[in-house]
Task: structure prediction
Amino acid sequence: MPTYKAPLDDMKFVLNDVIDYSRLTSLPGYADFDVDTAMSVLEGAAQFCEEVLHPINQNGDAEGCHIDHGAVTTPSGFKSAYQKYVESGWPALSADEAFGGQGFPQTLRFAVEEMICASNLSFGMFPGLSHGAYHALLMHGADDLKATWLPKLVTGEWSGTMCLTEAQCGTDLGLLTTKAEPRSDGSHAITGNKIFISAGDHDLTDNIVHLVLARLPDAPSGIKGISLFIVPKFLLHADGTPGAANGVRCVSIEHKMGIKASPTCVLAFEHSVGWLVGETNKGMRGMFTMMNAARLAVGMQGLGLSEVAYQNAVSYAKDRLQGRSLTGVKNPSGPADPLIVHPDVRRSLMTIRAFNEGARALSLWVGTHIDMHEKHPDPAVRKDADDFVALMTPIVKAYFTDMGFECTNMALQIYGGHGYIREYGMEQFVRDARIAQIYEGANGIQALDLVGRKLPAEGGRLLRFFFHPLSERLQRTVQDPQLKEFAEPLAKSFARLQQATQFIVMKAMSNPDEAGAASTDYLRMFGLVALGDMWLRMAEVSLAKLPTATGDRSFHDAKIKTARFFMTKMLPEVHGLFARIMAGAGPVMALEAEGF
Amino acid sequence: MPTYKAPLDDMKFVLNDVIDYSRLTSLPGYADFDVDTAMSVLEGAAQFCEEVLHPINQNGDAEGCHIDHGAVTTPSGFKSAYQKYVESGWPALSADEAFGGQGFPQTLRFAVEEMICASNLSFGMFPGLSHGAYHALLMHGADDLKATWLPKLVTGEWSGTMCLTEAQCGTDLGLLTTKAEPRSDGSHAITGNKIFISAGDHDLTDNIVHLVLARLPDAPSGIKGISLFIVPKFLLHADGTPGAANGVRCVSIEHKMGIKASPTCVLAFEHSVGWLVGETNKGMRGMFTMMNAARLAVGMQGLGLSEVAYQNAVSYAKDRLQGRSLTGVKNPSGPADPLIVHPDVRRSLMTIRAFNEGARALSLWVGTHIDMHEKHPDPAVRKDADDFVALMTPIVKAYFTDMGFECTNMALQIYGGHGYIREYGMEQFVRDARIAQIYEGANGIQALDLVGRKLPAEGGRLLRFFFHPLSERLQRTVQDPQLKEFAEPLAKSFARLQQATQFIVMKAMSNPDEAGAASTDYLRMFGLVALGDMWLRMAEVSLAKLPTATGDRSFHDAKIKTARFFMTKMLPEVHGLFARIMAGAGPVMALEAEGF
Result:
């Protein structure tokens, strides 16, 4: 049975020494949230995840969810865990104080999300979706809607969903057909079928707040004719408590590869009462508000699963005796050496570790920009921060989840045959990780978003927020006798990224397929360079601290060694990606569709 | 529900035009097995796989195997499919005629194995293991053992297993403790527990022939004290029919990530009667005979699953309408364009296709060397052929299965959310493919076998059988105006492979961890170059045939385009791998075990 221990030391290091968290405390409303306060929150979350969520992760997978006469039940333990989650106030952590939230920085939510996903991804889906619904309502809802629905979403007493997909449309939402017909009281009657609705029905809360994309009778076709509605499972009594059923029926739940404790529902809306959120035919805006937050959260799922898989692979590699070291016996009193002596095992562990720590730093770095976007008094700083988040969102979503899948698989492999057996829990991490590459915009769509929207936006303005600071850091560090071993390979890879960027932008002007064909390789390259940036920063910090370090000496020593591994063993993937990109779209598109 | 159509046209092309199959017909005993005969065999196998095995693949996964009072039952349909398999004579295809086999070339068995694995991997485990047992007995068993056990293994009336692993030892068989005590009649009493025994118990045959590694009372410790025994589930009556139970008990079956219709058993042997196969304390020889055949067969599992996943992803990509082409509407009469217009979807499909066709050619090329090893009158040719097979075995096993997993995942991804749902069948291919990277020697072990045993063997003699012909082909083709676009990138990658080889051999002399740290990257690089060799050959054939091609014009056109894709879009991975290898073992081994 796997175990989980939240990486609090590493989180503290990132907050204190890498991402300059303290600058958040000067933002309006954040004065009280210094690093010590932040760490005490994270310690509480860690305890909850380790002691409440992780112990029900495996039985959640084994039992799955069940549906009986349209009512979905979650696996044993989920309901009481959710009640504790609500009682402890976690749903409100970073929610707006105006609606009962605790107003903590979003950066901390990222760290908490990593822990929740690591300990129990299926459980994390419930509050994750609720947060998306909360956020869309907060940004786009009218005041009365907010007053009615937000407080209970903030406490977690009610949960939320995002109802976008229909059988004929996933990526291409322009094809959706769910109807919204005006009712005399200003509300709308929603009718249609939605599929793949995570947490679409369950037994954890006494109401569910669905955010539904639908089409008004006179709406233009395509995505410009889509509006967003709030449609509760139960209508409310005058006192605000749930009353009559609202015609939302869970038709079935899917049998999935993983996240089996998260019910994925087919929902039928039949003249369900809904209220417009935002303007008519501008539903995609609200959808993107939900999606962008959700995309970053999904990235954290990749990281979380990679972290828990790493921890278990490490302990297996230290405990399991098998074979002898190539360089001589290391465990003479035992019948064999532990797996961790073998270079190929260590290569896998170092790879996962280097990804996890780099990704953790990057995610919290992005998190601080969300806080700056929301709180900074200067609109120019707010806009810059938002642009940086917009640039990094597809990278965090796709690169983190691709690596989440790769890393959980590497961790499984270390277990050998036992990795393939359910009771060891490793194969669940792999199955759970697989969905993150798909939902909230499949990773190919993220790559297209990066090359098709983010690169060309405002004449390449978004790129600057990543390229300029990195250029400066490299110019400074590449001369430094201690840092140049890290800065030089990164500078080389960064140059490749810049060349690839130019190549794609130029080529795509005459043939958009060039951008499409390069997109996935380009996003991967960007992710590698972005992690390289984090590793350069971390190496710099740890090199500076090592000479005087006492209790945390081994921590900084490991950081430096892991940085070296990243630069020499992971970053070179850039070279193959670069060569592929530069080969252009021709070889990809040459074969006619009939030839396949 | 997925479908499968065996790639007979491509197999015919490989046999006829790429691997010079016809030269096998000059080998003793193979005169009757020309290409036409071969193709009629493959057509029969195709029909069986498509019509009998594939339709029960999905329910096999859903039902799984069950155990009741030590007796294992297979999912519905498996028993009757197995009976048809036996009645049709497939188990005997390439078995020795002296024991009732049909004596077909081994090369054809490779092609048949691809089809069986593609259509139903779990089913394929039963005859696969039987073949391993058959082969070990054939090579190492005494005449009376062969006469008693081989004929029914050849007909498939009885099945076989390989009982190696114990709870404390998987890779490191030296740690095994199962005992073999001499009995007065020359047989032995076998006592011990084995785990992970595929097809260890089931309801398909009325006897099971276990090949069991065990230790004699006076045996030296470690792998030099292991002997191989044949231990049937039921002892035989005087007339050769199964009689009394032989103390072999199935204790439990594993709950696995995939191949759920293949029972993975814990077997307890309690004073079970066994007979020594081969010499005492030389059991590892027999084990390697089984393992080497099994490793190549496992490689075919990767290819087979990649092929069936490809076929289904192609039809989904052609049928599913979602989004519009970046270069303008391609399906104006429909609400959207089919997925296959999107460059990123095409990139995935081309990658899978290029792997499948390259791997198919390579596997059959290796197959012809097995036939030459077994049948060629000249011992020098036999030895050369065997050495080539020994070199390629870890590459076929590990590279094919790593790619099998990657390709099934790429195919799943094309389905979007539907790929994650059971009924579409794609996630089963992924789960089934995952085990092939682990069993019969985890892929890290294959990589160590390549760098630690195969590279240094006989002063690098084995490498010559791959390096020399490729050098010659490149020298010839790199000058050719039509071929140089294929030969040049391959020559560059081949040079990298040669450099990496020298680097590893040199470095490993002073520090064996250098070989271990480079091993996985090196094997991958070797696999890429080996597939490149196949693609160069195929491009040469198709370029020569295209000008006069009529009915198969589009076939050769597609070959050339796929060759181009491989050389420009897949082979460049070599560059990143090369840089990683050249960074040496230092960064991999720097962090102390306690630092993890």
